[in-house]
Amino acid sequence: MNKVFTRPKSLKDVPFHYCPGCTHGIAHRLVTEVIDELGIIDTTIGVGPVGCSVFVTNYFECDMFQGSHGRAPAVATGIKRVLPGRVVFTYQGDGDLAAIGTGEIVHAAGRGEQITVIFINNGIYAMTGGQMAPTTLLGQKTKTTPYGRDKVINGFPIKVCEMLTPLDGTSYIARVAVNTPKNIIQAKKAIKKSFQVQMAGAGFSLVEVLSTCPTNWGLSPIEAVKWVEEKMIPYYPLGEYKVPAGVV
Questions:
Q1: Strands in the chain per DSSP E
Q2: Are strands 116-121 and 87-93 parallel, antiparallel or unpaired?
Q3: What's the CA gap between 199 and 247, in Å, rounded?
Q4: pTM for the whole structure
Q5: CA 248, CA 230: separation in Å to the nearest integer?
Q6: What is the span of the domain harbouring residue 68?
């Protein structure tokens, strides 16, 4: 019998450390499927973050670096400028990218660095115990907002795609989700485009992936995917925010 569905060659055959119901694993698979399909495993370099996906370097078969908290875009910039022929991507969470790394991501995008950013948004600081993140929704309860995020006290959630889209250096910006089969298919298409944009030398690309965190949300895995649909997507609309003409 022929196998019709197998593990991507770019994804190591090891167990993930993520909590049950976490969709980091789905995002890992999509990135590695794209690397396989584009045939770029030998020329790809990834940069891992600090956060739940800090061990991403253990899962991808391509060359990987580890960046300091929030500094993955700076590390990726250095790698790409020294090795312009390589495909360079970062894999970052919202606490890493949208908090301590805000300056790094804005200026990398503003400069039009030829890198791809995979941005996982689960609306919370997960690895450190469930504190409010820059992307935590209004009214959402966390360890540091036990009564819900208050716009007067805590301000509004940061919309990364909307923030980066107007910058001249950005080329491809998209927001996707991995909560349903349909959305997973669309997510893979966007991730593939983001790599193709870089390979065409068209500029900076970023794909924001709305992801789940059942453990710190205090929900079951099934309730968590419903939360993405009912709460996250209305505030963080899915779609392509910026697409370069004539590239993909």
A1: 44-48, 63-66, 87-93, 116-121, 170-177, 204-210, 239-242
A2: parallel
A3: 10
A4: 0.96
A5: 31
A6: 24-242
- pLDDT (tens place) for every residue of the chain, 248 residues total: 788 888 999 999 999 999 999 999 999 999 999 999 999 999 999 999 999 999 999 999 999 999 999 999 999 999 999 999 999 999 999 999 999 999 999 999 999 999 999 999 999 999 999 999 999 999 999 999 999 999 999 999 999 999 999 999 999 999 999 999 999 999 999 999 999 999 999 999 999 999 999 999 999 999 999 999 999 999 999 999 999 987 77
Q: Mention every residue, 6+ apart, whose C-beta is less than 8 A from residue 118.
A: 27, 31, 89, 90, 91, 92, 191, 194, 206, 207, 209
* In-domain check, residue 168: yes
Classified as helix, coil or strand, 48 is strand
Domain total for the chain?
1
CA dihedral 235, 72, 191, 56 (to 10 degrees): -100
Strand, helix or coil for residue 172:
strand
**Residue 176: CA count within 13 A, CB half-sphere:** 29
Rg of the chain, C-alpha, whole Å: 17
Kindly report the backbone phi and psi dihedral angles of residue 116, in degrees, each rounded to the nearest multiple of 5, phi listed first.
Answer: -115, 135
Say if residues 197 and 116 touch (Cβ distance below 8 Å): yes
CATH number, position 156 = 3.40.50.970
Residue 158 included in any domain: yes
Q: Determine the Cα–Cα distance for residues 114 and 100; give it in Å rounded to an integer.
A: 22
